[in-house]
Amino acid sequence: MINPRKLIGAFLVGTTVFVCSCEKNNVKTLSPDGRTRLQFCLNKSGEMTYSIERDGNAFVLPSSLGFEAEQGNLKDGFVIRDVYKKVVDTTWIQPWGQNKTIRDIHNETVVEMENPQAVKLIFRMRAYNEGVAFRYEWDANGSDSLKISDELTEFNFANDGSSWSIPGDFNTYELKYRKLPLSEVADANTPFTFKVGNTYGSVHEAALYDFPEMCLYKKDSLSFKAELAPLPNGVKAYVPSKFTTAWRTFQIGDKAVDLINSDLILNLNEPAKFDDMSWIKPQKYIGVWWGLHLGSHTWTMGPKHGATTENAVKHIDFAAANNIQGVLFEGWNQGWENWGKSQHFDYMTPYADFDMDYLADYARQKGVDLWMHNETGGNIPEYEVQLDSMMQKYARLGIQTIKTGYAGGIKGGYLHHSQYVVSHYQRVVETAAKNKIMLNVHEPIKDTGIRRTWPNMMTREGARGMEWNAWSEGNTSDYLCTLPFVRLLGGPMDYTPGIFDLDYSRARGNNDFNGWNGDNNSCYIKTTLARQVANWVIIYSPLQMASDLIENYDSHPAFQFFIDYNPDCDWSKAVAGEIGDYIVMVRRSADSFYLGAGTNTEARTILQPLDFLQPEITYEAIIYADTPNSEKNPKNYRIENLRVTSVDTLTLQMASNGGQAISFIPLSN
Ligand code: NOJ
Ligand code: CA
Fold this sequence. Notes:
The protein is an alpha+beta fold. Strand 17 (192-196) and strand 18 (199-206) form a beta hairpin. Helix 4 (309-321) runs parallel beside helix 5 (356-366) and helix 6 packs parallel to helix 7 (419-434). It starts with 9 loop residues before the first strand and ends with a strand.
């Protein structure tokens, strides 16, 4: 019996043996540090594969490439016409982000090919120190358009290992993580994070436009295939004869935190499409929101209506008094009676008890921004009809931020992550940019780094956020310790952290909302209070919410952290962590630093050197920590003030499900 992995010049992909003829059909790209090699190969039939080596060892075995399309041959018969290489080392600045200054250092190889059907393909490969990526740039020689019926890209892992992912569902990302051996994953969405031997990695995509999302579906043992979200008729995508796909990406690192500290996804996106970014402002916000999910308020007009003028004024005043720049209103516009039914919403007309013009004026005087919520319920056609005029109206009123939502089946039977919806999300981003409006998208398409190109695409949900704690068994601390290593690799998340009233379900008293699973007592926050504070730092969002009812923050000593926190970060680093176990993040905004640490169900002590602080500056460290009692009573916390410098080390003690937050404010010398 021949072991195909030992054959020289032959290799096994799924059940097909490719024979590589071919030095000249074999093109390699090496990462700048020489550790990672991405290799492209054509066999005698002109079929394409790629493979990846790390430190001289097989990491991804030869894996098929190409597409199936009715009108063109996008899979074989290719010959190489030209190969050229580029070395890139540049630095660019983001208007906002976890890091404002980003270095892009990589080697690129471009392989130009053609097949007998005169289909031309540029296969673009890049190798970075922190991973590799490739994409297809097709020119199908004049076919008016192509119907893509399948993507043939495969991912044949060389060895088994552990993986962390959500299932490969084309309709939602609001799913629990599974930790599974690679060999036991049937399907997964991306980012698909894994550890093989001592190496960490994550498969994702970058710069996804006008194309369906990609999931990984098991083919065989350690072999996965790209599966694209289909349109209702089964076609995956309609594309012009010239089209470029999203990048297929592999982040690779020696430590779990290397995945978080990588800018690979952003570096693969194009520079910004517009120059004036003065109107783009990272900020903190509160909102008429949590009460809606608890059932103490309603989206619709009535005795418990949340978005009334009076309640809005109260929120604007609270924001103005507490260094909070934005206030979100849900249930302010007409149509909520139709949610889950006709999904007819009017995005221009407020309910009679919400005086939009007055509030826009009032907020302006108070120096606070009004945020309007647009729930579409999945009724995209109607949203698109109102889009231009609605955004123009908001812009006239000085409204600069919209939270959109797609909670409901997409009208027309489309899957949430299919090409039609991806293109819709993009139309909204571009219309918003024209009107100088920032976006926070719920039930979004996954983040593939387009915020570099469209910096008004600030943040999005796209995972189980805080809302799940209001009406389900909620999110565990293991989930919270997995999020940074999977979902957050794509980009910022509007998790809406910071509930202080951890056992609110008991506090609901006799209100008539009993939790969606009928068990009111299972609804509570499964972390300590200190961890809720830490999540403001851990779960990065340039628009960061304090999501609890404002009365739960009023005069609460731990709320001082949010008052001091500045989400307009200049620099960020994950300094310690293991997937699903714990995480320590530090960020700098202007001269202050913020640390957020969190653990899973295990109580944990971490010795944290403060060498990230500026040398020779003394900081006041304000520490928000668990107490020995916090495991039994998660609302217990302590605040301690210390003077520290960069040569000090702090002991971070965290209770089970706990955490710690620290702000470091420089003291003038
Ligand atoms: C789901 C969103 O995630 C949540 O934030 C919003 O309040 C509801 N939909 C209602 O639109
Ligand atoms: Ca949601």
